[in-house]
What does this fold into?
Amino acid sequence: MVQMNSGRHAYSFDGGEQLTTIGATFFVSYLYHLHVDSTHRNWESIRTRDSRISTINRTGNYHVDWLNHVGCMSEANLNRNTLGLDGAVVKKMALSIQKAL
It folds into this structure.
């Protein structure tokens, strides 16, 4: 599911390079804020949030597929985020977003 590319690991599914740039947990956190709970703001703690949001805005055609992929990701890997979100919670948030779309 992950490949080596330019010295970094990128997801190997469609749009995976962009999701790698955004970060799966940031992606879920931001979309959760937009579509489920506007008071959720964990994504705001990231210094590079503006460039990540710009990438999210350009990649809307991948969002549904990415949410499906997040549901299959390792909770241990999702736990490695810097947003303070547990991997299991990230997966639940992704499911809530899917239901809201």
Notes: Residues 33 and 41 are 7 Å apart (CA to CA). The first helix runs from residue 16 to 22. Residues 1-6 have pLDDT under 50 and may be disordered.
